[in-house]
Structure formats: structure tokens, C-alpha cells
């Protein structure tokens, strides 16, 4: 099986490499051959087109020489203006005999006379107006060729060669000949291009002059895919013609401007290129056979020693460590065999040492089992003790947590008391300030009250004086009233005396009357003044009574102010005492706050330590449990180790040292 596998692994890649190389070489050779064949065939076709162009030029040149001979003929020149065309027809006849390609010969004089051979001239349109006549007269030194057209007499396609006739430096007419297109077709059909190639000729109007398909003769070639390219001077291209890939080589005839083209099917070149595939295939087959033989030989050189190594390995697998191979080679296989023998020797030594180590492991595992059982019991006791300590630590942590919460509540209450104390202190300060302001205002009020009392006394004195003055004024008014009464009596007496005196006492009577009126008015005014004074005295008496009552009230007010001053003084003294006491309270609260902070910090530290202790205890307990579990596992592993040692001893005993 190994032999077949190694042979396959050596033979298959080697053959695949040869096959792939052969395929690549064949493909490259085929492509190169195809390319070379196409290039050579294209060059050959292009050369054939040049040869065909030269042949066409020779044909056209020969016929152009006949036209030139016509134009240079003395007979035609001398008889160009003659009445009889016989001499010209005779000349045409001679040339027709010399050149069978000429279908018709013409001479058109400048006075529109026409001479034709072999068909006589018939009344037609004015030939001097035709394009070819006009073209020939423009350059009398050249022969011009027309594109194909259908001859009316023969109904065949022809081309016309024309040249002007000069006589004494003057153009006297134009001579021309008709050449059948079939002659040109025959000329080009003789050209062979490959096995499937053919030639094409296209005139200046783009119509086919030569084509293997006679149905296309005279038809337009401008719609062909290659037409645009062949309008250039010359070249080669690959295009589709009638659905087939073909190579087209083309050139342009300088004499007429017609396009010559030769085309060959691309498949013809590919068929020629496939010829190289057969020798390549034969060479590839021979190479494969040789490669297979070499591969078999090489594979046997490898597989035979490999089989020896395989058999020796089977012996070792079955427990025979004394197996070895004897391969005396100086290549990699020889090194492999030597390495195998060395490995076998080392394995014998290793298994022998493993047998000794197995015995030691068995003894050590038994000792480990005993120690593990003792350690497991100790670890179990430590785990139980640590669990009890952990439970106590957890309970202590809970109590410390409750103490910390109570301390926090106490701290909040102390903070609240401190805040209230500060607010009371602030209110006491404001109360003290208000008390001092009240004392000051009461002092001012006391001073104002004393001033009011003094002013009241002065007012009473002034009112009394006013009352006395009013009485004096009343006496004066009474006196004036008496005087007014007396004046009135005197005025009456004066009036009486004036009346007695008659006319002489009339002026005095008037004065006496006026005095009487004044006395009456004075009496009336004095009555009013007396009434006013009486009212004023009454008001003054009332005012004196009211002022006396006000004085009594002011006196009472002064006493009340005095008492208020004493009260404010007492309040101020009490407030100052309260402020001092409150200051002591706040100071005590501050000290409590400081002690509270210390208490909280200590409680926090104690709680943290307790929690760490509880956590550490739990970790120790967990470690103890883990150690106990590890010891149990160690005990189990020791048992397994003893079992493995026993198994190893059994396995080692299978080998032969």
C-alpha cells in the first residue's frame, strides 16, 4: 500500500508536470504558428495584391498607349477637320486588329463631330459635354480612365480611356477606347490567393468591378465593414464578410484610383497552424512513457527502504525494541534509517529507565496518600474553627454597623442642635440690638416728654395771660361803646341844633348826621368785637382746661416712659446674660461636634477593620475548605498515581529490552 502510494505520489506529479509543460508548449507553439501563418499569408496576399496592381497597371498602360497612339496619330490630326472620316476609321481598324481588348474607338472633334468604330456613329447627345471629354481637355498630356458603365450598343459593362488630341498647340478633339470589364475580371481571376481567397476590385464610386459573386457586380460596396479601411492607400485588416472572419489585404491603383483587395478566410490559416499539433502530441506521448519508466525506477529506490523501515516499526509497535534496519546508503533515506536505529536504542534505554521510575513512583504515591489523609483531617479542623471565627466576626461587624448608624443619627442630632443654637445666638444678637435701640429711643422719648411738659406749662401761662388780656380788651370795648353812645347823642343834639339854625346850620347838620352814622357803625362793630371776645374767652377757658388735662396726661406719660426705660434696661441686661450663656452652649456643642467626628471616624475605622477581619476570616475559611478539598483531591490523585504507576508497570513489561 505504501509502495503504491509513494509511486503514485512520485509518478502523478511528474507526469502532470510533463503534460502541463507539453500542453503549454503546444498551445504557445500553436498560437505562434497561427500568428506566423497569418502574418506570412497576409504578407503573401499583400504581395499578390501588389503584383495584381502591377498587372492591372500593365494592362491599363498597354491600352493607354493605344489611346496615346490615337491622339498622336498624324492621320487623326490631319483629318480631324476633314469632311471624310474614312482615314480615321482605317486607323481605328488597324489598332483593333492589333488589340482585341478594344471594343470601341472614338474620336470627338471640338466641333462636336463623332467618329466611331466598329459601330458607326449615330445621332446622340453632344459628347463634348460629357465629364470624360471635359476631363481630357483639361490636361491633354494624360490618359484618363472612367468608372465602369453599361455600353448601350452591347449592353456590357465597359471602362473608357480618353485623351485629348492636340494640333498646332490647340486641342482639336478627344480620342477614346472602350475596354470590357470582363477582360479585367479575367485578368484578376487568374490570380490565386490561398485555397479560399479571391480578389476584389472597386471603382471610385464604391461599386464592385470584380467579385466572385456575379450578382454583386456593379453593386455598391460602401456598406461593407471593410470599405472605410480600404479607401486608404494600402494595408491589412481582419473583418467579417458574409458572417465569416477573413483577412483582407488592400491597395490603391494609382492610375485609376480603383481599390484592389484580396481576402482569405481566417480558418484557412488556423487549419495550417494545426499541422504542428501532431508532432507535438507524439513528442509529448514519448516523453510521458519515458517519464513513467523513470518514475517507477525512482519510486522503487524510495519505497524498498521505506518498506524495511515500516516492518521495523511494526516490530517496535508489537513491543520488540530490539528491531533494527540495515540500509547502507549515503542519502536522506540512509540518514533516516540511521536515525531510526538510534531512536530504537534510545527507546530501549528510556523504557528501561521508565520501569525503574515506575517502581519509585509507586512507593512515593503510597507515602503521598498517607500524608494527604493526615493533612486532610487537619485542614478539616482548621476549616471548622475558621467558620466559627467568621460567624463571630460577621456578628461583630453587624453590631459595629448598628453602632455606626446610631453614631450617624447622633451626629445628625448634634448638627441640628448646633444649627438651632447658631440661629438662637443670631436672634439674641438681634434682640440685644433691638433692646439697645429701644433704650435709646425711650431716652429720647423721655427728653421729649420733659420738653412737652415744660411747653404745656408755658402754654397754660400764656393762655391765662391771653384770658386776662381778653378781659382788658372787653373793658376797652365797653368804654368805646359808651363813647360811641355819647357821640350818637351829641350828633342828635347837633342835628337838632342845626335844624333850628335853619339854612345856615344845614352843613353842620350833614356833618352831625355823618358822625351819627359813624357812631352807630362803631356801636355795631363794638358789639361784634364784644361777642368775639366773649367767645374767645370761653374758648380760652376751655383750652386752659384741656391743656391742664393734657399736662396731667403728659405727666402720666413721663412716668410710663420712665418705667419703660427701666423695663428695657432690665431686658437688655437679661439678653446679655442669655447671650453669654448661649455662647457657652454653642461652644459646648462645637466641642461635642468635634468629639462626634472623632467618634464617627473611630467607628468607621473599627467597622472597616471588623469587616476586613470578617472578610479575611471568610477567605481563610474558604482557603481552609479549599485546602481540605485540595487535600481530598490530592489523596484522589495519589490513588490515581498509584493506579497509573501500576498501569505503566504493566505496559513496560510488554517490551523486550
UniProtKB/TrEMBL annotation:
Methyl-accepting transducer domain boundaries: 371-628
Entry keyword Cell wall biogenesis/degradation: no
Record membrane topology: Multi-pass membrane protein
Transmembrane intervals: 12-32, 276-298
GO BP: any one term: signal transduction
Keywords: Cell membrane, Chemotaxis, Coiled coil, Membrane, Transducer, Transmembrane, Transmembrane helix
Membrane among keywords: yes
Coiled coil: 624-654
Entry GO terms, CC: plasma membrane
Compartments where found: Cell membrane
Domain HAMP intervals: 300-352
PANTHER family, per the entry: METHYL-ACCEPTING CHEMOTAXIS PROTEIN MCPB
Family affiliation: Belongs to the methyl-accepting chemotaxis (MCP) protein family.
Name this polypeptide is given: Methyl-accepting chemotaxis protein
Organism (species): Fictibacillus phosphorivorans
Organism placement in taxonomy: Bacteria, Bacillati, Bacillota, Bacilli, Bacillales
Amino acid at each position: 500500500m505504501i509502495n503504491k502510494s509513494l509511486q503514485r505520489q512520485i509518478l502523478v506529479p511528474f507526469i502532470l508536470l510533463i503534460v502541463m509543460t507539453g500542453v503549454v508548449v503546444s498551445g504557445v507553439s500553436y498560437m505562434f504558428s497561427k500568428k506566423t501563418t497569418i502574418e506570412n499569408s497576409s504578407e503573401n496576399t499583400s504581395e499578390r495584391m501588389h503584383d495584381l496592381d502591377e498587372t492591372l497597371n500593365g494592362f491599363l498602360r498597354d491600352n493607354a498607349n493605344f489611346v496615346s497612339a490615337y491622339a498622336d496619330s498624324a492621320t487623326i490630326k490631319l483629318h480631324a477637320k476633314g469632311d471624310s472620316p474614312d482615314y480615321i476609321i482605317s486607323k481605328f481598324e488597324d489598332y483593333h486588329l492589333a488589340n482585341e481588348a478594344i471594343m470601341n474607338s472614338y474620336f470627338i472633334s471640338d466641333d462636336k463631330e463623332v467618329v466611331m468604330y466598329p459601330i458607326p456613329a449615330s445621332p446622340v447627345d453632344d459628347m463634348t459635354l460629357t465629364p470624360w471629354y471635359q476631363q481630357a481637355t483639361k490636361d491633354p498630356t494624360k490618359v484618363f480612365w472612367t468608372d465602369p458603365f453599361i455600353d448601350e450598343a452591347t449592353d456590357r459593362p465597359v471602362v473608357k480611356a480618353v485623351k485629348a488630341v492636340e494640333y498646332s498647340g490647340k486641342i482639336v478633339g478627344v480620342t477614346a477606347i472602350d475596354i470590357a470589364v470582363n477582360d479585367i475580371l479575367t485578368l484578376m481571376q487568374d490570380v490565386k490567393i490561398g485555397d479560399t481567397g479571391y480578389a476584389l476590385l472597386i471603382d471610385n464610386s464604391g461599386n464592385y468591378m470584380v467579385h466572385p459573386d456575379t450578382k454583386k457586380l456593379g453593386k455598391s460596396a460602401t456598406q461593407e465593414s471593410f470599405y472605410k479601411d480600404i479607401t486608404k492607400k494600402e494595408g491589412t485588416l481582419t473583418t467579417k464578410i458574409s458572417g465569416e472572419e477573413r483577412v483582407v489585404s488592400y491597395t490603391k491603383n494609382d492610375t485609376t484610383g480603383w481599390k484592389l483587395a484580396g481576402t482569405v478566410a481566417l480558418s484557412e490559416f488556423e487549419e495550417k497552424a494545426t499541422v504542428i499539433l501532431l508532432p507535438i502530441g507524439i513528442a509529448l506521448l514519448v516523453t510521458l512513457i519515458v517519464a513513467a519508466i523513470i518514475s517507477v525506477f525512482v519510486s522503487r529506490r524510495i519505497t524498498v527502504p521505506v518498506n524495511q523501515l515500516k516492518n521495523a516499526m511494526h516490530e517496535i509497535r508489537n513491543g520488540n525494541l530490539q528491531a533494527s534496519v540495515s540500509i547502507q546508503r549515503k542519502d536522506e533515506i540512509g540518514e533516516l534509517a540511521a536515525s531510526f536505529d538510534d531512536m530504537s536504542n534510545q527507546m530501549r534505554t528510556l523504557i528501561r529507565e521508565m520501569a525503574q521510575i515506575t517502581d519509585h513512583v509507586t512507593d512515593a504515591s503510597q507515602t503521598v496518600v498517607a500524608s494527604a489523609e493526615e493533612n486532610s483531617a487537619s485542614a478539616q479542623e482548621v476549616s471548622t474553627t475558621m467558620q466559627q471565627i467568621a460567624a463571630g466576626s460577621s456578628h461583630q461587624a453587624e453590631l459595629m454597623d448598628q453602632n455606626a448608624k446610631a453614631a450617624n443619627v447622633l451626629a445628625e442630632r448634634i448638627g441640628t442642635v448646633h444649627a438651632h443654637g447658631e440661629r438662637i445666638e443670631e436672634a439674641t444678637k438681634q434682640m440685644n440690638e433691638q433692646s439697645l435701640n429701644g433704650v435709646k429711643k425711650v431716652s429720647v422719648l423721655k427728653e421729649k416728654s420733659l420738653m412737652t411738659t415744660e411747653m404745656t406749662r408755658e402754654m397754660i401761662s400764656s393762655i391765662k395771660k391771653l384770658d386776662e388780656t381778653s378781659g382788658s380788651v372787653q373793658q376797652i370795648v365797653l368804654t368805646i361803646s359808651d363813647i360811641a353812645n355819647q357821640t350818637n347823642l351829641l350828633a342828635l343834639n347837633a342835628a337838632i341844633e342845626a335844624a333850628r339854625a335853619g339854612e345856615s346850620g344845614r352843613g353842620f347838620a350833614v356833618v352831625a348826621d355823618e358822625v351819627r352814622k359813624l357812631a352807630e357803625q362803631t356801636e355795631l362793630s363794638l358789639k361784634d368785637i364784644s361777642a368775639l371776645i366773649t367767645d374767645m374767652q370761653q374758648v380760652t377757658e376751655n383750652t386752659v382746661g384741656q391743656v391742664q388735662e393734657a399736662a396731667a396726661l403728659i405727666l402720666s406719660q413721663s412716668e410710663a416712659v420712665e418705667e419703660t426705660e427701666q423695663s428695657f434696661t432690665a431686658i437688655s441686661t437679661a439678653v446679655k446674660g442669655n447671650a453669654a450663656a448661649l455662647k457657652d452652649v454653642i461652644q459646648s456643642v462645637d466641642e461635642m461636634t468635634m468629639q462626634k467626628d472623632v467618634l464617627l471616624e473611630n467607628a468607621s475605622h473599627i467597622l472597616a477593620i471588623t469587616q476586613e477581619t470578617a472578610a479575611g476570616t471568610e477567605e481563610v475559611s474558604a482557603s481552609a475548605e479549599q485546602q481540605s478539598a485540595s487535600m481530598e483531591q490530592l489523596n484522589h490523585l495519589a490513588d490515581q498515581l498509584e493506579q497509573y504507576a501500576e498501569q505503566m508497570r504493566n505496559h513496560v513489561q510488554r517490551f523486550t529490552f
